[in-house]
UniProtKB/TrEMBL annotation:
InterPro entries reported for this sequence: LPLAT_7/PORCN-like, MBOAT_fam
PANTHER family: GHRELIN O-ACYLTRANSFERASE, PORCUPINE
Protein name according to UniProt: MBOA4 acyltransferase
Positions of transmembrane segments: 6-29, 41-65, 383-404
One GO molecular-function entry: serine O-acyltransferase activity
GO terms of biological process kind: lipid modification
Topology class, membrane: Multi-pass membrane protein
Subcellular location: Endoplasmic reticulum membrane
Keyword Repeat (UniProt): no
The keyword Transmembrane belongs to this UniProt entry's keyword annotation: yes
Domain of life: Eukaryota
GO cellular component terms, A-Z: endoplasmic reticulum membrane
Primary subcellular site in the record, as a coarse category: endoplasmic reticulum
Length: 410
């Protein structure tokens, strides 16, 4: 099962569709004041456990163990050391799961291992984000309360069903505030419906574009671009439906805090800069990586961030190559564009500059996305030795030439 196939399968799977009516039921129970605050946390937690069991069966144990472990660490370790312990525990467990499941001869038609790994990755986001909030004093754990009163909100946050299998990352403080205020604000049904219609349009567009692209080899330039376009549409579909599910349950993200808005979609498809694409792509994960790695790394934060992203995604050959290539392309982007834009003084030169760099950005992004999705060394070698590598190599050479001449400009 490829990750690209998983992105299309998840929104259409029966368990994903069942989550929508349960999300609506949860909101209406809260709005009618039939659920106390404790009952709300229990409903969200029980729904997460039920969804995990339905979606992945016995693999759910691999998700419940790190959730319980991170919760126990947060309740037993001092706030100053909470993040280091949670980070080490989560990434160690996630790496073991990646290595263990990838080394087994699994049924290629069985999506449960891939769904499990995706859920564990999202759990790592929430656990490390919460641990950072605790360490920085943004989330007091209220030591005066009983163990159950302290543990229940943490467990509910890590496993609540609307965001168990997808959705933009939200902070624990926002999650707790939304649980407490559900029913006091209007139900965002219209916004959720608009996102569902957008998802249908994206799926229709993807189905219309699939197939009929000529050569099937990764050495073919149009084929590479078309394959990357289909991958982007699959990601967009995934993000839009995830946010729709959150909104139906009353947990919609704040304006600009989701993974994909109409403005973000326009930016991703029209930007002429790789760095802008990187900041806009999967925005909640980008913000998480920036806080977790970029802002805390004393040396080479950009390279460290992309290297960690490859680790977090699973360290497959294509992921390591793709994310390191992405880091080099972003660094080159910071150097090349100030150099070119300073020389594009006339209107015609500016149009030529933006049009040419848009084409370059499209091809570089396509190269990176396809590389990340490549599962074998042979396919990666085929991609590396193709003419598609000319543009990334040119960007790398330009970076070497400009590196010593001028400081980078973001």
């Amino acid at each position: 099962m490829r990750w690209a196939d998983l992105l299309v399968l998840l929104p259409a799977a029966p368990h994903r569709l069942v989550a929508f009516p349960f999300a609506a039921l949860f909101y209406h129970l809260c709005a009618s004041r039939r659920l106390s605050l404790t009952a709300r946390y229990i409903f969200l937690l029980a729904g997460g456990c039920l969804l995990a069991g339905t979606a992945v069966g016995s693999y759910a144990v691999l998700l419940l163990i790190p959730a319980a472990g991170s919760m126990l660490i947060l309740l037993s370790i001092s706030p100053a050391r909470a993040h280091n312990w949670v980070f080490a525990f989560q990434m160690s467990w996630q790496t073991l799961c990646h290595l263990g499941l990838s080394s087994q001869e699994l049924d290629p038609q069985d999506a449960r291992p891939a769904i499990t790994l995706s859920a564990i990755m999202l759990l790592t986001q929430k656990a490390t984000s919460l641990a950072l909030d605790v360490q920085e004093g943004l989330v007091p754990l209220q030591l005066g309360q009983g163990l159950l009163q302290r543990a229940l909100p943490l467990c509910s946050y890590l496993l609540f069903f609307p965001a168990l299998l997808g959705g933009p990352l939200c902070s624990f403080s926002r999650f707790r505030g939304q649980v407490e205020s559900l029913g006091a604000v209007p139900w965002p049904l219209r916004a959720a419906g608009q996102r569902c219609l957008c998802a249908l349009a994206l799926q229709g567009l993807r189905a219309g574009l699939a197939g009929g692209w000529g050569c099937a080899s990764l050495r073919c330039l149009p084929r590479l671009w078309a394959r990357a376009l289909l991958l982007r549409l699959a990601y967009y579909l995934h993000w839009v439906l995830d946010e729709a599910l959150l909104q139906v349950a009353g947990f919609g993200p704040e304006a600009g805090q989701g993974d994909l808005s109409v403005h973000d979609l326009w930016t991703l498809e029209t930007t002429h800069r790789v760095a802008v694409f990187a900041r806009t792509w999967n925005k909640s994960t980008s913000r998480w990586l920036r806080r977790l790695i970029f802002q805390r790394c004393p040396a080479q934060p950009l390279l460290a961030t992309f290297a960690f992203s490859a680790w977090w995604h699973g360290l497959r050959p294509g992921q390591v190559f793709g994310f390191l290539c992405w880091a080099v392309m972003v660094e080159a982007d910071y150097r090349i564009h100030p150099f070119l834009s300073a020389r594009a003084t006339s209107q015609g030169a500016k149009l030529l500059y933006r049009g040419t760099t848009w084409v370059f950005t499209q091809q570089i992004v396509a190269y990176i996305l396809v590389a990340v999705e490549t599962e074998s060394f042979s396919m990666l070698y085929q991609l590396w030795t193709s003419c598609n590598s000319i543009l990334p190599l040119s960007y790398g050479l330009a970076l070497l030439l400009l590196l010593a001449k001028k400081p980078k400009q973001n």
